Amino acid sequence: MLGSPPGDLTRCDVAMPTPARLERVADRIQQELSELLLRDLSDPRLRMVHVTDVTIDREMSYADVFVSALEGASRSAEVLAGLESAGGYIRRALAARVGLRSFPRLRFHWDPTPENADRIERKLAELRNKSGQRQ
Length: 135
Hints:
By secondary structure, the chain is α+β, with helices and mostly antiparallel strands. It has one domain: K homology (KH) domain (GMP Synthetase, Chain A, domain 3, 2-Layer Sandwich), CATH 3.30.300.20. It has a three-stranded mixed beta sheet, covered by helices on one side. The protein is built from four helices and three strands; from the N terminus they run αββααβα. The N and C termini lie far apart (73 Å). It is globular, with a radius of gyration of 21 Å.
């Protein structure tokens, strides 16, 4: 509102980042975190961990990081515990690499998508084999 007094809380001077900017920052965090996991972290719980996606809320306060491992969900608790343990170090290292004024807090989640996709592929292959035997 024009002409509002300086402490008026009805006025909003903070510009929200565009969806394109949020996506660019999320992609950069995903790229840098993947590299960090490969090169800089020596925790054995974090070996062979893949960052599948990163999403950031509109205020850029939180980044949800989705991860998976080749071994599947059997390692999910171990991997998430390792990431939580190294969370402070990871956030500081990413903040230095990405260069945002205020870096979002990281929340780690297990992503079952690769396992689900593998299960679907096996089912489809099974159906193809069954239909091939009928002909």
